[in-house]
Write a structure and sequence with these properties.
The structure holds two protein chains of two kinds.
Chain A lengths: L4 H25 L7 E3 L2 E3 L4 E7 L4 H8 L10 E8 L6 E4 L11 E4 L4 H33 L4
Antiparallel strand pairs in A: 1-2, 3-4, 5-6
Chain B lengths: L7 H18 L2 H34 L6 H33 L4
The chains are: A alpha+beta, B mainly alpha.
């Protein structure tokens, strides 16, 4: 239904922000994980994850309509295309000789998760979610106002 | 500035022509059927929204993999479509009552 286009777009953004939140919570939960996966028999600490969002260009029909000049394409929202591991930031080395995963010098490789960055991302995700809900409510109030035409 | 005089005769013949065109092409039965079908389709789509909202709520309660906001949005869509239906119904009833109030 075309009257709900903006609602559908907002719904896709809400879903994307929820997924982003899930990834952030995974990052914060695994801030001390030293055994995330095994590489060549050696345990590797958890790698920070982040999401890649792309514009959802939607269906073929919307492109066709646009090409024929019938209707402008207002976009169909956003989607998360990839959850990627952060391979750029190196693991943090912490001196803790009693740790079972410590190397010969007594250093332990800790995940490359920075709590501060994660908290900022968390606030950002929450605010984006709120902004999208504001859009949704505005869209709904427009529809309800339209129903008052002629009253 | 030229203001066109209101010509009743032209308007009248136009209306009569239009009415003749309508009655020539469509019988009252056909018109009724087509209106009934349109109404039926519209109400079915409204009902569909309600059913969808119901299904989403059930899924959420049963702990299936649905987002809370999707459930809320489906419920809001159902609410908006139902409100629109109510407005159409109110208008139809208003017109009916207007006709019934007509003094003959």
């Amino acid at each position: 239904m075309s009257i709900f286009t903006s609602m559908n777009t907002t719904a896709s953004a809400l879903t994307a922000q929820r997924l982003r939140m899930d990834v952030i919570s995974s990052n914060i939960a695994n801030v001390d994980t030293t055994r995330a996966k095994q590489v060549n028999g050696e345990w590797e600490p958890y790698r920070r994850k982040s999401v890649t969002m792309t514009e959802d260009n939607g269906q073929f029909s919307s492109f066709l309509n646009q090409a024929m000049g019938k209707k402008e394409n207002a976009g169909n929202g956003v989607k998360v295309t990839k959850i990627n591991d952060d391979t750029q930031t190196p693991f943090k080395l912490v001196y803790n000789p009693t740790h079972p995963d410590a190397n010969e010098d007594g250093y332990v490789e800790m995940p490359n998760v920075d709590l501060l960055t994660e908290m900022v991302d968390l606030v950002s995700a929450t605010r984006s979610y709120e902004a999208n809900i504001t859009v949704l409510n505005a869209s709904k109030s427009m529809l309800t106002k339209a129903l008052e035409i002629g009253k | 500035m030229a203001i066109n005089p209101v010509s009743l005769s032209v308007a009248n013949t136009q209306i009569i022509e239009e009415t003749n065109k309508l009655s020539a092409n469509v019988t009252p039965f056909e018109a009724q059927q087509s209106f009934a079908n349109t109404l039926k389709d519209a109400i079915a789509s409204v009902n569909n929204q309600q059913v969808q909202s119901d299904a989403m709520t059930n899924k959420l309660i049963n702990g299936e993999d649905v987002d809370l906001h999707e459930v809320m949005i489906t419920a809001q869509k159902a609410s908006v479509t139902l409100n629109a239906t109510m407005e159409v119904r109110n208008k139809a009833i208003e017109a009916y009552q207007e006709i019934m109030r007509m003094t003959i």
